[in-house]
Amino acid sequence: MLKLKRDSGSVDLLRAYKVVLDGNIIGYIKNGEEREFDIAEGNHDLFLKIDWCRSNVLSFKDNANTVNFECGSSCRGWKAFLVIIYIIFLPNKYLWLKKNL
């Protein structure tokens, strides 16, 4: 089981992020939402995507336990003014993804 929690209050307030597992879109996550996805046991690569921008890629192993992640936009607070910089020069850092221990 993959559990994903998205923070709220970013420039993408009204948009959903695509949840991409092993190259396939398995669902979407909206602002402030928490979602669970049933996944097969084994090794996986996970990232989020919006338009041509995405998050970092995290590799993990699911061994029948719940694997918890958090995500959000890098363009929050004062960084919202840098959104055009992220879109043009840092599209792979526009979103962030981290695993909770």
Q: How are the secondary structure elements laid out?
A:
Elements lengths: L1 E5 L10 E5 L2 E6 L4 E4 L4 E9 L2 E2 L3 E5 L4 E7 L9 H7 L5 E5 L2
Parallel strand pairs: 1-8
Antiparallel strand pairs: 1-4, 2-3, 2-5, 5-6, 5-7, 8-9
Proportion of residues in β-strands: over 45%
- The average pLDDT is 93
Number of DSSP strand runs:
9
Q: What distance separates the N and C termini?
A: 15 Å
The largest β sheet comes out as: 5 strands, antiparallel
Structure explained in plain terms:
The protein is 7% helix and 48% strand. It has one helix at 83-89, and strands spanning 2-6, 17-21, 24-29, 34-37, 42-50, 53-54, 58-62, 67-73, 95-99. The radius of gyration is 13 Å and the shape is globular. The chain is built from 1 helix and 9 strands. It has 101 residues and is mainly β. The strands form 2 sheets. Strands 2, 3, 5, 6 and 7 form a 5-stranded antiparallel β-sheet that branches. Strands 4-1-8-9 form a 4-stranded mixed β-sheet, with no helix packed on it. The longest helix has 7 residues, at 83-89. The mean pLDDT is 93.
